[in-house]
Amino acid sequence: SQQGEEDPQALSIQEGENATMNCSYKTSINNLQWYRQNSGRGLVHLILIRSNEREKHSGRLRVTLDTSKKSSSLLITASRAADTASYFCATDVNYGQNFVFGPGTRLSALP
Amino acid sequence: DTEVTQTPKHLVMGMTNKKSLKCEQHMGHRAMYWYKQKAKKPPELMFVYSYEKLSINESVPSRFSPECPNSSLLNLHLHALQPEDSALYLCASSQDLGNAYEQYFGPGTRLTVT
Q1: Which of A8, A77, A104, B82 is the most buried (most CB within 10 A)?
Q2: What is the pLDDT of residue B62?
Q3: Which of B42, B48, B88 sits opposite A102 (nearest CB)?
């Protein structure tokens, strides 16, 4: 069963703008990860945030986690055309043995 | 070397063919994964190997047969596939099993079943 749900499904912004994507999940988690996938390619790991963390940064990426609301957000600041990709959150299943991907947000950063 | 390689990049096969997909990593990772991804959908887990033993089989039809010959290699043997099996097949590896570890993905094999 699907654990995470991203919102919005698709997002178009201009280069230089910030992009925010949200992920909601249903059951308690130990960790939540975000991945990026350029069209038809493999996924690239962006950030892992643990359940006892509230916020993590990596370059232009900021991830927050609210376990009380069972939600996470990914913020990309000052977007670039190269950020155009699909973004997936991944949440625990099988007692943390593996994780399941949400449906993803397709981001288009237009020049 | 943080690369996961997959061969072939593209594969077209008939429903009666037998073919294999290959995946290799040299990061010393002990967990390896096969995913299937349809267009505009997230990757769906098929199999997980941990320390060269099959750990998770997500109720995948027997026409897909995984094999882990050693800690660096992962194969997916295909036989009597259906057109609906056409998809991008992704291999991944991680240091160990579990959601505490990031997964490294290969570029995928684009499979078309005719």
Answers
A1: A104
A2: 95
A3: B42
